[in-house]
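Each record in this resource describes a single protein on a pair of labelled lines. The shape at a given residue is found from the number at the same position. The record below illustrates this layout:

***
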Amino acid sequence: MIHEARCSSASPLYRDRDTFGTVFSQTLEALLSHDDVERSAVLAVGLAGPADAVAMHAVLEALLPGVPRLEHSEGELGLARYDLTQGIALVAGTGASCHALDARGARTAIGGYGPQFGDEGSAYWIGREGLKAAFRAEQGRIEPTMLLEAALEHFQIESPWELLRESTSGGHIPAPRIAGFAAVVDQTAEAKDPRACALLDEAGHHLGTLILDMVSRTHFEIVPVPLVLTGGVFHSGRVLAAIEATLSQAKAVFSFQPVVHEPISGLIRILLRDITIRTT
């Protein structure tokens, strides 16, 4: 990797089209401003879904006219990382979704409805549930939990209520901000806080159920079915254990592949495969 550029959330779930275009364009311009960028063979762009395809294509065409483009979901990249022709990829980062490639080469995706309507088990969901527990603990509505002190320290506030000041005009705090608390929930669970442990167990159950929902609607010709997990949530050993427990209870058999923490490795596999096809 030669250079990398990051920006605040450009997802259309939290930005209007004009703002999305501006943020995306500025980030690409910063990346392309390096003197040695012409040495690059590949420019990889990762966007939170569902992406605004019209705005995205407009920016890419303006900054990189005529440059060939490949578009793949994070789930597709996860499967490609292990050169799988059949299998399931579970994605759990800020959001959560499940992707499958079946015996006929057909692709299916479920979940990924965003923080308001879905994404159960995602980093956003874990962070939100952890903060809900902190709010309730402060009011004495639930048993004391270390999540309260953890939230105050993480957000550098004196009361969870102060977070409400960060709400946008739509009444929501940006999802990446809430999702960032998921790692703190995991650390609190490692300290044996019952509430945090229960939240991660529930997150794993939601994600395991999403996998089972995919299996029920997809035809595979191999057993066990290859399963790829990709996304930051899978840094949590407790979530992984809860997923395995959910699948085991349903008597579903999978071949777990090593967790993919960097989806770009799958993109590299796809590009190498494409180059091989073109030269043979």
The mean pLDDT is 84.
